[in-house]
Design goal:
It is a multi-pass membrane protein. Its main location: membrane. With 412 residues, the protein is mostly helical. The chain has a single domain, classed as MFS general substrate transporter like domains (Growth Hormone, Chain: A, Up-down Bundle), CATH 1.20.1250. Helices cover 80% and strands 0% of the residues. The chain is built from 17 helices and no strands. The protein is globular, with a radius of gyration of 20 Å. The termini are far apart.
Length: 412
Amino acid sequence: MTGGPRLGLRANLPQFSLLVVVNAMVGGMLGQERTVLPLLAEQVFSLSAYTAVLTYILAFGLSKAIANLFAGSLCDRYGRRPVLVAGWLVGLPVPLLIIWAPEWGWVIAANVLLGVNQGLTWSTTVIMKIDLVGPERRGLAMGFNESAGYLAVAATALVTGYLAEAHGLRPAPFLLGLAYAVIGLGLSVVLVRETRGFVSLETRGHDRRSAREIFVTTSFRDRSLSAVSQAGLVNNLNDGVAWGLFPVLFAVEGLTLAEIGILTAVLPAVWGLGQIAAGALSDRWGRKRLITGGMLLQGAALAWVAAADGFVPWAIGAALIGAGTAMVYPTLLAAVADVAHPSWRARAVGVYRWWRDFGFAVGAVLAGVVADRFGVHAAVAATAVVTALSGLVVAVRMKETRPGQTPDRTLL
């Protein structure tokens, strides 16, 4: 770039667009499991207890949370691009392990690797986009990033449903995931460029903090960061319930694999499509109202799904959950970037994403226990209550963080 690197979406559009494509490949890796794996657990591996079925989400959530926690530090120490490439290398065996799995333990191992893959690659694309765009269009940038990832989740969930209907649960649906891993790795090695140098363009002075200080500040001490972290955890708690229990619920009620694939795709499709608009609106209106409203909408929609019966009512509920999640997802990331100093922002993003994806593990355990004891409908209803309460916590605790509105960083 003439005159050296510059911050901004337009100034870095080619590299930014490439990172959007790379994150679509990351989302596709997750999407390969959304429709097929819960059914594989029941129909191929004969797992009847919901707690056993959801073990793969528990394994995924824990490994992804841990990978997120270290991704920011690794990006600061070694650079963004090497961490991105490492994440793709870890993801390559995932579809093959599921295709060849003779027992459920192989699937658990595959999801440990998938969690590391998602933690390293998705965290890094988020950090790299924040590096490139600067503070002015941060919400829009996160909207593009998350939209690409979750539209790929939706498209892959839909396609794998049809592939499973036509060719069986294995191997056809997971060959798509293998293609995503190969393409993502190739783009990252050949075309992606390092962005760590852009941080110096935004940094004014230094705010040196230890890893422990950053974890405590992001998790508990800062009003806004702690509210964001708990909202992220609960958001992915309810997404883990949707991922693990919705296909089983729909199958029990007699829907076909193709219909289940459509319903499974509706949530991430609306989620993905809405995030660009939500991110842009958060740049204009502020972060807090979108996060609060999105969490409350998700809670109401989950209650609808728990009470509904039939393809159309469930499709409406899934779409409303997706809309609420779209309001929340890019906005939470933008809020973290608003508050954290550029010198420790990558690590703060990692801590936030640790809490957010730990929600998968919490959701898998709680949903499995409640579903085994009281049924799937009760598990979804309980998740609705927790999600609504999380929105109220944001309303009470979070301060507005959008640049230009003098963010309140008072520490409790």
